[in-house]
Amino acid sequence: MLAIGFTLLLGAYLFGPGLIARLILGFAVPRKTLVQSRSEEVTRSIVQAVVPFGIALVWARATGALQQSGHLTDLQTVFSGIYSTSFFDAHRQDFFSSLHAFCQMNLCLLLRLYLLVVLFALTLNLAIRNYSQLRARLPLGWQKALLATLVLPRVSEWHVLLSEMLLPAGDFLDADVLTKSSVLYQGRIQDKMLGADGSLQSITLAKPRRFLRDEFEKAKEADPNVDREAYWRSIAGNLFVLMASDVINLNLKYIHRNPIDFRSSQEERIVLRRLLERLSNDETDRDQTDRQAD
């Protein structure tokens, strides 16, 4: 029973902080999932737990909470009783008395350890959410490098590329997507879906357009200076979903947001053309009516 208890206690120190940190980070952004061996996972957990444990230990000793919970002699009695059966039989009452103090000392340390982990994870969440603004405000290159080292390795690469993390304030993200069927699509990145391992599942484009490649190639043979923009056609609907399994090439463009977007869609051009024709016909009918009245 004592062996099970100490195993759980060891797991609370080594694996608990990392588990809580990953759980909290998962609420902010899709995390980057690392495929590691068992030894690499243990080593990583130990490294992640050392720093907050050291801070928690100094905190507990500085406030006197650790000394009030127990003393070094309590630790010696407990570990001696676990190691030696003869010592346990000879000092059974002292062992259980020290075991109570031992539990109080660990509770004192674990509360501070997990509080530090939660605060660190929440701070990292805020840094991830406001990464572009923080990076723009940092004046020195090493500060930006430190921020990137702390934030980017913990986030899925696809979230970094397809979100506003790397975008300057006021910019948006456009994409040219080439599919396996050799169809080229274009649109503004509206959303994406990521798998549990951080892999890309789908891309959602706003204001989607499709490029008429065959017609463009034929026109280009006749006229090398043909306008490429004339062979883009808007796709009906506001959002267009592309599955990542169909994508073979993805070109991202960071575009500065203008106060007014002067690029009109195909539907807008048709509506404007019809409106101009109607206004022109109304003006012609009005002139004819005025001449007849004269």
Highlighted features:
294 residues; alpha+beta; SH3 type barrels; 2 domains; 6-stranded antiparallel sheet; 12 helices; 60% helix; elongated
Characterize the overall form: elongated
Structural class by SSE content:
alpha+beta
Averaged pLDDT: 79
Described by strand count, sense and barrel closure, the largest sheet is: 6 strands, antiparallel
Question: Which series of helices and strands comes N to C?
Answer: HHHHHHHHHHEEEHEEEH
Query: Count of helical segments?
Result: 12
* Oligomer state of the chains in this structure: single chain
Compute the number of structural domains.
Answer: 2
N-to-C terminal Cα separation, in Å? 111 Å
Radius of gyration computed on alpha carbons: 32 Å
The unreliable regions are none
Query: Level of helix content?
Result: 55-70%
The number of E-state strands comes to 6
Strand content: 15-25%
Keywords: Membrane, Transmembrane, Transmembrane helix
Detailed description of the structure:
By secondary structure, this protein is an alpha+beta fold. The chain folds into two domains: 2-134, no CATH class; 170-258, SH3 type barrels (Roll), CATH 2.30.30.100. Helices cover 60% and strands 17% of the residues. It is built from twelve helices and six strands. Strands 1, 2, 3, 4, 5 and 6 form a six-stranded antiparallel beta sheet that branches. Helix 2 (16-28) packs parallel to helix 7. The radius of gyration is 32 Å and the shape is elongated. The chain crosses the membrane at residues 6-30, 42-62, 109-128. Keywords: Membrane, Transmembrane, Transmembrane helix.
